């Protein structure tokens, strides 16, 4: 059963990776780049600061950073534990893979840090913004970024799906903990204020 599932994963990868052209090579290379989305990140920071001022934005930015840290670290641990070759690195498979700019990534690929990070941030901010429009936009962005990794030949679909699901769960859990920690701090501050009033 497992062998059948892995073979299906490989066949789906070959189909998706095979939908390529020189024009799409350039587009997907840009989409997958670390700094390509910097304007979006800056814009989101400004929106967070504007919507949650004067101090709540600090919690949001802090926990958004924690989402990325947790996703990155867990992805690295899973890659070392499962040791599943990337399509571009598999000695028995890489000759079938469409590679862009000779980029092959590290040796192992399960699960995708790109997918985990993008879906983690999307889930976290969607919870913060509580807007269907923002939710659709953020998850569409995460899906496009994740697909670019298949297109570039460095991740199987299963790497992306698992990374996306794990990232989304981390994003939601970080949001829950953010709300809890903020409420806890607010209650502590209110108690101190009450004590000061009583002393007066």
Topology:
Layout: H1 2-17, H2 22-32, H3 38-52, H4 56-82, H5 113-129, H6 132-151, H7 157-199
Walk me through the structure.
This protein is mainly α and 200 residues long. The chain has one domain: Vanadium-containing Chloroperoxidase, domain 1 (Up-down Bundle). Helices cover 74% and strands 0% of the residues. The protein contains seven helices and no strands. It has helices at 2-17, 22-32, 38-52, 56-82, 113-129, 132-151, 157-199. The chain starts with a helix and ends with a helix. The mean pLDDT is 91.
Q: What is the name of the CATH architecture?
A: Up-down Bundle
Number of helices: 7
Taking the alpha carbons of the first and last residues, their distance comes to 73 Å
CATH class: Mainly Alpha
Spans of at least 5 consecutive residues with low confidence: none
Largest sheet report: none
What sort of overall outline do the alpha carbons produce when their principal axes are compared?
elongated
Number of strands: 0
Content-based structural category: mainly alpha
Give the averaged pLDDT, no decimals: 91
Rg calc: 21 Å
Order of helices and strands: HHHHHHH
Brief account:
This protein has 200 residues and is mainly α. The chain has helices at 2-17, 22-32, 38-52, 56-82, 113-129, 132-151, 157-199.
